[in-house]
Amino acid sequence: MIQYVALAAAFALSALVGGVDNAFAQAAFVGTLALAGLGLVLIVGLSGQLSLGHGAMMGLGAYAQAGLVGMGIDGLPALAAAATVGALGGLVASIPGRRLGDLGFAMSTLALALVVEEGLLRLAPLTGGAAGLVVPPLTVAGWRLASPVAQAVASLTLLGAALWLVGRLRNSRLGRAWRAGRDDEVAAAAVGIDVRHARLLAFVCGGALAGLAGGLHAHWLGFLSPEQFGLPLSFELLVLVFVGGVRSLSGALWGSIVIVSLPQAIAMLRQALPGFELGAAGLELVAFGLIVVALVIWRPGGLRPEGR
Amino acid sequence: MFAQVVVGGVAAGCVYGLVALSFVLIYKATRSVSFMQGELLMLGAFTAVVLVEALGWPAWVAAVAAVAASFAFGLVLERAVLWRAIGQPHLTPVLLTFGLGLVIRGAVTSVPEATHRMHRLPLPWSRPLTVGPVQFAPEHLMVILATCTACAVLALFFRHSRTGLALRACSEDSGVAAMLGVSPAAMHALAWALGAALAAFAGVLLAPVTFVEPGMGMVALKAFPAAVIGGLASLPGALLGGLFIGLSEALAGRFLPDGVKDLTAYGLMLAVLLLFPRGIGEIGRRQ
C-alpha cells in the first residue's frame, strides 16, 4: 500500500514541478529504463554475473527500431525485432566471456559495448553517425502514440507485462538454475545444472528486455545519437539496479524513478543556490558521484530493506 | 617512416601498458575492478601542469611530486571509502570507483582554468633524435625510456623488497600471508595507492604528448584490452598487452582504412576472450 502512495507522490511532485505533460513524459522514461533495468536484474541479481554493456544492448534495440520504423514497418513488429536484436547482442556479448569465470562476462560485455558505440558512429550511412537520427512517434496499427499520456501508458503497460513474465521466469526451471548457479556453482553443476548454458540464456533474456526498452526509448527520445548509449548509460543502469536492490524485480521500477529524477533534482538544487554559474556541469557530476558512493556505502542492499 | 610509426605505437603502448599494470595490480591484490584509473591519470597530469605553470617548478620535479601526491591520494581514498569493498561482490567496487571517478572528473571540470585553455607539460629537452634519415619525436622516446625505468624499479620492488614480496604473497593467498605476519589491510591500502601512483605516472608521461584536459582519462579504456590480452592476472602480461595494443593500433592506422584504428583494441579484446581466455601467454604454454 505504502508503495502505491509513494508512486503517486512521486508523480504528483513531478507534475507540480514541471507540469502534467512533463510528468507523463518522465513516467514514459521511467518505464523504459525500468524495463532495461529488469533485464539487468536478471543478469546481475538472478544469475550473479556482471554486465558492463547493458546500455549498448539498449542502443542496439533503439537503432534497430529506428531503422525498421524508418522503412515503414509498423511499431509492434519493429519492437519485436528490436527485442530480438537485443537478445542477439546479449548472446554475442556473453559467448566470449563464458569460459573465463569471474570477470569474463564483465570484460566481454565491456568490449562489445565499446565496439557497438564505435560501430554506430562509423556506420554513418545507416545510423546517421555523430549527427544523429530522428525517430518518428510510435505507431501501433495506425494509432499514433504522440501524446505523453499515451507514451506513459504504453511504457508502463509493457513494464507491467515484463514484470509478470520475469516473475514467472524466476520461479521456473531456468530461474532456479540461475539462482543455484549464482549461490554455489559447484553444487549446481553437481545436481546436473548446465550453469554456463543458463548464464548464456540470462544474457539473452536480459538483452531482449534491454532491446525492447531501447526500441521504446528511441520513440520517447525522438532523436538518437551513439553517445547516448555509451558506457555512462551502462553504469547508470547498474546504479539503477543497485538502488532498487539487485535481486528485487520491482526494485527496477524504484531504481528507475531515482535515476530519472536524481539529475533533475540536482539541477534544480543548483539553480536554487546562487553564485554557482561557473563549472555547473562539473558540480552536477560531483553531486551525482557523491550520491552513488554514499548509497553504496550506507545502503549496500538498496534503498528498500531486503527486497523480496 | 615505418620506424616512426613503430616508435609512436610503442610509446602509446607504454601508456596503455602502465594503466593496465595499475588495473591488474589492484585487481590481483584486492579483487576489485577499478573504473577510476582514467580519472586518476587525468588528475596526475593536471597536478604536474599546475605545479609547473603556477609554482614554476621544473617539469621533472613536478612529475615526481604529482606521482607522490597520487600515491597519497590513493591511500586516502582506500582508508576513507574503498576498504568497504573488501569481500563484497564485484558490483560494489565497480560502482564505488565509478562514483569516485565522477567526483574527480566533475571537480576538475568545475575549475574554469582547466577547461578554458589547453595545457601541455613542457619537455626538459625538445631536440628530435636523428638516426640516419629518420627523426624520432623526443616525447615518444621519453615515454619509452621512463616506462622502462619504472618497470625496472617495480621489478626490483616486487622481487627483492620485503613490502613487495608481502604484497605479492597477499595477492596469491591473503589467509596464508596473514598467518606469516603480513597485514592484509595494509596491503589492500598499498595496492590502491600504488595503482593510483602508476595511473598518475602514465598521465604525467602523456602530458607532453597530448593536451591535458578533463576528458583525457578516456585513454584508460584501452587498458582493459591490454589487461585481457595479458591474461588479467599477470603484471608483465599487462605491460606487454599494452605494447601489443599500441603497436596494432599504430599499424592499423597506417595501413588499414580510416576508422579501423579505433576498433582495433576492442576487436582484439573480443578475439582474445574468445580464443585465448587466459591471455596470449597461453599460446606458448599449450604444447
Q: In total, how many domains does the architecture of chain A comprise?
A: 1
Q: DSSP strand (E) fraction of chain B? A: under 5%
Structural class of chain A: mainly alpha
User: Oligomeric state of the chains?
Assistant: heterodimer
Distance between the termini of chain B: 38 Å
- The helix/strand class of chain B is mainly alpha
Number of helices of chain A: 13
| Arrangement of strands in the largest sheet of chain A | 1-4
Strand order across the biggest sheet of chain B? 1-2
Uncertain spans of chain B? none
Order of helices and strands of chain B: HHHHHEEHHHHHHHH
Biggest interface goes to: A-B, 48 and 46 residues
Helical region count of chain B?
13
Beta-strand fraction estimate of chain A: under 5%
**Main beta-sheet annotation of chain B:** 2 strands, antiparallel
Report on the structure:
- The complex is a heterodimer of chains A (308) and B (287).
- Chain A has one domain (2-298).
- In chain A, a hairpin with a 2-residue loop joins strand 2 and strand 3.
- The mean pLDDT of chain A is 87.
- Chain A has 308 residues and is mainly α.
- Chain A has helices at residues 2-18, 20-46, 54-70, 75-94, 104-122, 124-127, 148-170, 173-183, 185-190, 195-221, 231-244, 251-272, 280-298; strands at residues 133-134, 138-140, 143-145, 223-224.
- Chain A has 13 helices and 4 strands.
- In chain A, helix 2 (20-46) crosses helix 11, helix 2 (20-46) packs across helix 12 (251-272) and helix 3 runs parallel beside helix 5 (104-122).
- A two-stranded antiparallel sheet of chain A has the order 1-4. In chain A, strands 2-3 form a two-stranded antiparallel sheet.
- A two-stranded antiparallel ribbon of chain B has the order 1-2.
- By secondary structure, chain B is mostly helical.
- At the A-B interface, helix 5, helix 11 and helix 13 of A face helix 4, helix 10 and helix 12 of B.
